[in-house]
User: What shape does this take?
Amino acid sequence: MSANWPERISAFSRSPSQFLCSTTSDIFLAEVLHELRDDRASDHIKVLLLSPLLEHPTLLCPSVSVGEETALELMSVFAQCSPKSLPLRCHLLLALTSVLLCSCCVSSHTSASQDFLDLLLQMAQDTNDAQAGAALHPLRTTACDCLRELEACLPGLLSQRLELLSTLRQQENSRLHQAYTGLHALALRNAVYLLTQQKGSGAGDLKGALGSNEGFVWGEGSDSAHPNSESHSDLALFSPLTLGPMGKVPSLQTGQDCKELRSLLSSLLEESYLLTSLSQAALLRRLVEVLAMVPAVSPTIFRAQLLRLLGTCKVCLLHTTLLMKAAFTDSLFSAEDEAFLLKRLVGLSQHPLLSTPEKLFYMDCILHFPENRPISSSDESLPVLLTPRLAAALVPTVFNDSVSMLARLNLLSLVYLEEGEEDREGQGGRGLAYLYDHLTSLLHIVENQASREMVVTFFRASFLFLLHFCHVERYSEDLSQRLCDLYLRRTRLAPHLINLADRTQDRLEESGWAVALLRALQRTITEAPLSQLTLQDLRWHLRILARVAEEGEVLQKATLNFLLCVITSSSSALCVSGDWRLGNGVLGVCRRLLLHPSLDSLLTPLADLLQHLTCHYGETDIQDHARLYYTLLTTLSQEKLAGVLAQRGTERGRQAKVRSLSAIMGETEELTSGLTVHQTERPLLRLVKHEPDDCKPDHKPDSEPACETESSPGQGGIEEYRAQFQSSSFASEITLQYHLTHTGVHDPHFDKLFSIRLHFDLTDSHYEEVSDISVPCLFRTRKPPTVTLRLKPKQPYHTTLRASAIFTTEDGLSWHSPLADLNVAFPEVFLPLLTPLGWAREKKQRVFEGIWGEICSGQSEGDLTNAATSLFCDQLEDSAVGELVEKHFQRYLVSDLDKGRCKVLFFLPPQSHVLLKVITEEDAIQVHIATDNWKLLPYVNSYLEDITKESHSTQQVNGDV
Amino acid sequence: MAFLLAKMSVRALWIISYEKGESVAVRFSRRYPTVEQRAKCMAGSLYVSVPEDGTVLQLLLTEMGLSDSDKPYMALRDDCLHQQRSPALELHVEGPSSGRVLWPVLVISQGSLILACLAMVDAPADPRPPLASLFSVSQGLTLLAGLQAFLCGSGSKPDREGLTSRLAMMPSILLQICPLGTPLDIPQLGASSASAMPTPAGTQKQPAWKTGVHRGRAVVNVALTEMVRSMQYGNRNRQDLWDVYGTVTCKCEVEGVLPNVTVTLTLPPNGSPLMDVLVHPCVSSLDASILTAMSVEDCDSSAFSGPYKFPFSPPLEPFRLCSYTSQVPVPPILGTYQLKDDDNQLRITVSLKLHESVRNSFEYCEAHLPFFNRDQMGSVDVKVSSGQLEVSKEKNLLVWVLGQKFPKSREVSLEGSVSFSGEHPGPTDPLCTDLTAYIKLYFRVPDLTLSGCCVDQHSVQVYSSAKPRIVTSRELLSSEYFIWNSTGTAPVSSGHMML
Assistant: This one.
């Protein structure tokens, strides 16, 4: 098994969901933990084994209890590790942090998380290697990192230990001081924040917090890290701390007296130079936040660092400077500083030594430049200081890569848009002329066999240009003419052109540019000499013409003439060839023409065209549909035609168009959407577990005649029992019954449902596929129908089924609706001992004893590899045992409860048995467990725990009464 | 109670190898579940979980325009509405209309390697905060760039075996630099661990960016490299352009936990000031005047022009101390290029002139004349006044090897004609159609800078007990040095032309 761990772990990381289909998370977790405890496994393998826990703790430890157990296991592995196994121990700390935080153990303040915190703090306190030596540096760093992550997820956890953190940071002289600084700064910032939230906090509280050295604070702050807590209003209130001068920052009124904080901040700042750029940026960022919350300390303490930060080549440090500027504006940055910073950003955005992502980021920073006195707060606005002259450094050129080019085009468009506003004629200045020239050089490149990427970039650039300058007719009209010329040379660009028309129409509805472009394209296509038309071109032309025909404002006569010429001209091989797809293309145009508002004037030529297709097109299918359209055109009024052809013909939503059946032909590519099954927004149906009568506890399960003749002595019973399994279908299924009902969602539209088909999907591979179940109807007013679900286990584990339903409503529409997941619990897989009819109790007991004996002996000899025995004990009153047996075991009893003893047998299809001998002594219950499938033991155990816990609680209730 | 949650973290990290048409695979990925937990809390109902690697890969390739490269148009990939103009991509997890978006996914790619990470949004998700306000973005970019430098090694493209072995080191690298999703450092490159000793316990705090201290002979190596770019059009209506950018690289082997070194750059009298100065974070202080000159605005003749002092405490590994740009009065080599189309035959005239201020001693100097969008070369009848001509008929390329020296006149010329009568079409380029053509120059001149900038050996100050050996060097390299055919149209390359 251990040999394939690397493979298994990489399979898990690649796709956890797929991996867990072939096993369950509990089994996998158990295996991982087992292997971690194995001394023979190498450290390398163990580090690998930790990665699922490190990266997907919520999958493996879905609950606090599992998380807690796992954490305890990992801590014991940690304790037993050889001191030399440093990487393993570091990874164990990380895995523990992930597991404890993600299974909410820390926020529930469990004992394991407390122990873990103590362990971390203890390791962190060994500054300057006083005890463990320099070899343990990595471990100590990791411990600090883990503490920092805990503080990050549970803000305030360390807020009462600031003095200790400060001392540790000051004491440490090795490189590790960085880890301590990060931890201290975060805890400090969180502590100050907490103070701002307490009413009436002042200088004294701040001083107290800085000198505090108490325990961990598990208090109020902790629940915010819980993923389910929703407190948007608060989040919204505090986030502007990061966003700049416009927002509110919570502040702590301290008066002028905060010497301690000031000296602490200066000492942190002084040492910031000793940190790596990334950590330095993070530290500065924390300090900016602290200062923003404590107005008594002037931000000028950053001054000494400022030049160093402004000159830096590191993007993270310069970014921090910008955020600093956003937070403190003119109290730290003069007008000259501001002008300098902006020019610096422009320079960096085109610096030959920087990488493209960095340059793009700086350009984004220009668009969101934190001005000292911002005029507007809109999304993307240009800083006032960005003059066209300054921005000229960033004009797009054909030498830029696509992304940079588009970013520059966007920026410069904004610049020239402002410039244009000052220009009276509204025709744009030299800058705009340059941008248009640039666009035409791109167009020129596209004409010359450009790569796919260039083509896409050109159309994006055109869209961007139009978005800003559509109103400058000189350019927008010229562009559409050039696009038409381009199209004639490169008809393959049709989808791009249609896309451009669609998007400009969506975004610039009033401008009418898109319609003008489509009209121009129509003209281009219809006026081009037919003699040069190739079939390939025609295919694209039909796509464009179909799109043009969607525009009510565009006259369609030219389109029809063109089609007639193409179809009827004697030189045309089209009709003869009978190309189905081309035929469809023609029909697609016709179908849209049938819906066109000017249909009246098109009647004759369109009828001619359809008739010609009907009679002469060399493809029967096309002929048929042309005939259909012809009939519709000649017999129906325009309104009816619109009703038949498109349910929502007037609505020009291209994405969400409801297709009617008559459109299928014209739009073969959208065939599937023609037969739409609608989707309900929320689950409308649910399955409610229903205990059928024959499954109810039966007080006389063995009421068969006791006078049965003893046909076979000795072990005969068990052989006869086994023989039943020779028929493969024997006892292979479990049957579950449910009522199908409506959910709470009340919509009269769904009161009466018909032809309901329930579909079930497996979420793991423990069961055979489940076949669909049909239910004729479901009325809200009537008794709910019963649904019988037959499951065929491959492995007798609990499972979850995804359920969905397809049904029809009264108005004939088909709907698809998901149902809540169906959970099949472990006890639901139990069946009683299945014996031939008429078996006596004694015989069953013999089978029981026989299997029991086999398991016990087989286990000791080691040949029955899957057999296992176990013992479960719990405290339980005598009376409670009776209740427990009656409630849970009655159906599975092999021998009745007698003097506190009984025997229980669960059969789990396909071939597993779990045998219980229940023994009660005074106030304790012992359950001896034997099974021929050891993998079931954990489930049996938790099942027994659940039912005894239940008994406890009922006892409790009885006691209280 | 809600809280402004800790930020500056990444939720997940991916390393992808992408070889066109061959194999695409996620080679390494790492998720940070505790950060994910915080992201979930921050985003509330707008939270979108990170899909499994396979899905992320597909979405990422679509967004980068790399998926289904055999299809000329795909709405998902090529919609003109998608304006990728920031370094952060959006991944539409359940299709474009679902509104379930993973953002911001930061991406850096080099050669066949794509590195991506999902930065945590540390502000309420609606309305979407501007990228520039998210601290995690610059952190993520720095982390990715550091990982890229580590994975690609010294070459521009990672070699297969090297990459595999470096990928295998990723878990231990991440343990050090980003154990729980908050980037702390970038991988160390090429630190000479041989001479580095663990720091003795002392009162002086050791910088976190220094893995030990140097023991042994003190050596300081300062190398100044200048690159010159040029676009020459030979056209009266169009101004020729050229500029220079330089970097100062140091390798300092000096004893001490935090030794002080100062490097001073000086310019000749009347030298134009160094602009856009960027410094390494180990520079401990800067004079404001060093930063004032910038290329994006007009130069002030009274501006500060040195000396430029950079006091710093060096890390163990070689590092780029600073970089600058400069505007020099003349290009080192001035050229003209003329083509005449003569019935499927091109008549070529080229002349190159080395400026008198430039030392006539090259390590190498070559002029490349490529011809695009034509059939393969047939007969080549070209004479050069100096140097040799190499003809590569498959690539439609003439390489004019000028060697180490220009002749005394400092002028060389090339004349002749080339016919394109081959059977196969030659290489194509969408930009260079018709008579749009260029010459690209490649040269290196040792011991020269165009800006005149230099590091005097005696100006390097090292405050340490032992007297160090100090080595300085400088060189000039060409970069994007184009001379366009003056009889054809040439593309615009800079906004300064229109002003």
